[in-house]
Structure formats: structure tokens, C-alpha cells
Fold this protein.
Amino acid sequence: MEKTAEKIKQFLPVFITILAVTMLFTGMACRQANNSFTNEDFIRFHVIANSDSDEDQALKLRVRDRLIEYINDGLRREAVRQSDGGGKTAELNIEETRDYIRENLGEIRQKAQEIVQNEGWDYEVNAELGVRWIPEKSYGSLTFPAGNYEALNITIGEGAGKK
């Protein structure tokens, strides 16, 4: 029981982060009662490490966390910029989110590169918006089925990490 509680504590921040980014990326609410989504409901965010070494995996997580903050800030600013000020919640639909990512892909890549360099690594970083096959992922009762997803993919170095 202690191991289960410890695992839940360990993965809770990751789950919350993924959920927040997913909801912000699409501006959607959880409409489905079983919390199961299809691959057309949102744009995934996927960071691939240079390798599966502990150091590269730790770097991937730091890049992921800092980029989430950076991207979320940009999406919030864009949503406010596009809002009509009529008192309703400022949000972006999936098309507007996709446009924002495309228009800012160079800056997102540059920010990821900066994070990697500030962490003391010289890996090159790539960023692309495209379709990628992602295996099924479950976070508690939230399930992302396996499939081809549109994703903002950040690849660090060789991109050989599988974790």
C-alpha cells in the first residue's frame, strides 16, 4: 500500500501538468463522462529525450516543465488578445491553438534549446507540429488511447529515449 501511495504522489504532478496543458491547448472542458478522449480532441505535447539514461530523462522532465510554463503563458496572452472583452472566459479553440503553435514554433524551439544549454548540455533541439503515433496512456481515470495524434513534438539530441 505504501508503494502505491508513493507512486501516486510521484506521478500526481505529471498528471496535473499533462491535464492542464491538454485543457489549455484546446480550450475544451472534459465533456466525456468516462474521461476517455479520442485522438482528434486535442493537440498532444510530447518531449523525447536524447536517450533513456537517468540524466537524459531528468533533462527531458525539466525541459517539459519549463516549456509547459512558457507555452501556457503564450497561449494565455493569445487568448486574452483575441477575446472581445465581453466578460466571458478567454479561450482558444483547437484551430487557434494550432495557429499559435505554428506561428511560434521557432520561439518554442529556441526556448527549449536555451533550457537545455542552461542545464549544461549541448544537445540540439528540434520542435515540430505533426502527427505521431503515441501508445495508450492512462493517468488515474483519464485515458488517452493509443493512436496517431497531432502533437507538438520536442526532440532533444538523438531523440532515442523511449521512456
